[in-house]
Amino acid sequence: MANNVKGDKKRIVIIGQYIDEGIESGNSRFEYLAKMLSNTFEIYLLTSSFYHFGKRQKGSMPNIEGYHLDFIYEPGYRRNVGIGRILSHKVFGRNLFKKIKSLEKIDLIYCAIPSIDAAWKAMKYARRNDVPFILDIQDLWPEAFQMIIHNKAFSQILFAPMKRKVNYLYEQSNHIVSVSETYLNRANEQRTSKGGTIAYLGTDKKTFDKFMAENPPNKPFGEFWLTYVGTLGHSYDIKLIIEAMSFLKEKKYENIVFHVIGDGPLKQQFVDYAKGTGIKVVFHGKLSYPKAVGYLGVSDIAVNPIVPKSPASIINKHGDYAMAGLPVVSTQLSKEYIDLLKTYRAGITCYGRDPKLVAEAIEGYYNNKNLLEEHGRNSRLMGEELFDRERTYTGIMKAIEDIVGD
After folding, report:
1. In which element (H, E) is residue 35 found?
2. Secondary structure letter of residue 3 according to DSSP
3. Nearest Cα to 15, choosing from 131, 165, 155?
4. Rounded Cα distance, 20 and 345, in Å
5. 15-50 pLDDT, tens digit each
6. Mean pLDDT throughout 263-290?
């Protein structure tokens, strides 16, 4: 365990199973909270030894100043959906429970969901030992898995046990923190005590601006860049953007380049699909957060091609796109995000899986510099007002202080 903590403070355990490997240079919500809260509390940040995005064990533990950090062993898995992941999560949950039990005194547990097993074990300890418990909803499980199974009735039966566990976690939490209003509303369906704290995942504006300034890639003069940052999986329709680019190529837009930053189970499928189209697509793979921010900083438009049936609401890329001051061409049907783009006039939502509509939205920005710049400024304003952690995470701090005091 890395630790360098002094003083007699109240002890808070933060659990975030999916913290990135490059903790010091990443964009982890929980690493940020650990730093922020360590000025007032003694913090233990517990995460998995398994690197989810790279599907391997993490390297050596970094030396962290100000709080305790521990990698809890998890064997890992090869596929995001499958029995291997379920079994791996169970091992992580058991090992997490042992670690929590080994701590002498805990004043509060702050736990992310997913995974369900980690939250379930942490809640079990909290209830046995009368420890306040805050649940931070990052994603909706099992809803995120149900979208993969087309038979709705079978899906409901298959995931019923998981849903019962999640409903219990919502019900039993002392307080709910959520990355979106949509997710908070889902939790409050199970709670007699409504309310909670909404804090978008966001990013730190000062750090983000520093990364943008220090990591600009070489952008050839005259190129117009569309950029996607995120997972290459079932929730994201990269093929749709490639099809839209093909329409633009037919209309002789030869200087538009689509940059895809990220990795995932469908990456090779998307790469193969792009071959032979003649359009300019660059697959960068997963970049460090500072380098990804550098690409956003010199891009012209961000794309958010989320499939219609996805339960995703406000996610990481929304904050990054906004802080970079990029207009967004989006296909996401989350009312919450549609309303944000409308309210701030920061992007265009294309309804239905229609590559021609997406192409028209891109073309509209390409041919109207004033609109491009106006929506870019509005996007940055949205970033500063809604996604800057220095401003938005004060609500989390207040919720914690209200429960345990300072």
Report:
1. helix 29-37
2. -
3. 131
4. 32
5. 999 987 655 556 899 999 999 999 999 999 999 999
6. 94
For the CA atoms of 156, 162, 168, 169, what is the dihedral angle to 10 degrees?
A: -130
115, 36: one domain: yes
The domain that holds 182 is classified in CATH as 3.40.50.2000
Whether 81 is covered by a domain: the verdict is yes
> Do residues 199 and 177 make contact, with C-beta atoms less than 8 angstroms apart?
yes
3 part of a folded domain: no
Of the pLDDT bands very low, low, confident and very high (cuts 50, 70, 90), residue 8 is confident
In terms of residue numbers, what domain contains 129? 11-202+389-404
Q: What is the pLDDT of residue 147?
A: 66
**What CA–CA distance (Å, rounded) separates 29 from 204?**
10
Report how far residue 135's alpha carbon sits from residue 403's, in angstroms, rounded to the nearest whole number: 13
Q: Please provide the average confidence, as pLDDT, over all residues in the chain.
A: 92
Please report, in angstroms and rounded to a whole number, the separation of the first and last CA atoms in the chain: 25
